[in-house]
Automatic annotation (TrEMBL):
Transmembrane segments: none annotated. GO terms for biological process: lipid metabolic process. This is Glycerophosphoryl diester phosphodiesterase. PROSITE patterns: GP_PDE. Pfam families: GDPD (PF03009).
Length: 240
């Protein structure tokens, strides 16, 4: 099976992360999919942003959850990267799905270390409205949240994000009833990938920005590579 290339936060190498321009570019570049992070605003809207605080990427400060969508839309989310992108606004999940709905894989990461009431329900509802259930992977470091997703919609594809190396990660994912194993690229090896496949679990490595690391993962049969640099991994894949 051909390894799929997934643009991290859209494809953050050349564009500000998690912005509409980054997602448009990922589609244009022919990425197989995109990965991005979602959280809730004060008024309960699902927005696409990585940090819980807006300080790093927006011209404001404080928690995402303490601002309404209207307040956030008045700020920009591109200037931190370059003044060329100062018109970029924080996207809603709906706005991003409009752009990426045609891709093969849409990896929505629930960034819910904080408590976000009904985030799971809201994301599943939008995915259903777009009729893209089969291509969406909902991932999270919060595995209780993934269990909630499974309870709400048993057929939903869930990806367990792991921060560090653990013993028998594929057994863990299998036992908890998730569908894919998402680990830092340095913690994958051929054995883990093979065992996962034997157990019917897909494998996804993040965030792969070195050609040699991409080549190793491709050789070992990884299913998905999340990268900031879509074109770099495409070149490596062509050669392998
Ligand atoms: O989904 C993989 C990767 O995005 C997790 O790390 O911090 O970039 O969200 P982070
Ligand atoms: Ca992420």
């Amino acid at each position: 099976m051909k390894t799929k290339i997934i643009g991290h936060r859209g494809g953050a190498a050349g564009y500000p992360e998690n912005t509409l321009i980054a997602f448009r570019k990922a589609v244009e570049l022919g990425a197989d999919g995109v990965e991005f992070d979602v959280q809730l605003t004060k008024d309960g809207e699902v927005v696409v942003i990585h940090d819980e605080f807006i300080d790093r990427t927006m011209n404001g400060s404080g928690l995402v959850k303490n601002h309404t969508l209207k307040e956030l839309k008045e700020m920009n989310v591109g200037e931190f990267f370059s003044s060329d992108f100062k018109e970029e606004k924080i996207p809603t999940l709906k706005e991003v799905l409009e752009i990426v709905k045609g891709l093969e894989i849409i990896n929505i990461e629930l960034k819910n270390y904080l408590s976000y009431p009904k985030l799971e329900e809201k994301v599943l509802k939008l995915v259903d409205q777009f009729k893209i259930r089969d291509k969406v992977i909902i991932s999270s470091f919060n595995h209780y949240s993934l269990e909630k997703v499974k309870k709400l919609q048993p057929a939903a594809k869930t990806g367990a994000l792991l921060m560090s190396k653990m013993i028998n990660p594929s057994d863990y994912v299998f036992k908890r009833g998730f569908n894919s194993l998402h680990m830092h690229f340095l913690t994958f090896d051929q054995k883990i990938i093979e065992k996962s496949h034997f157990m019917g679990i897909e494998t996804c490595a993040y965030t792969v920005n070195y050609p040699s690391a991409a080549a190793d993962l491709l050789k070992n049969g990884i299913d998905m590579i999340i990268t900031d640099d879509i074109e770099m991994v495409q070149k490596v894949r062509e050669k392998n």
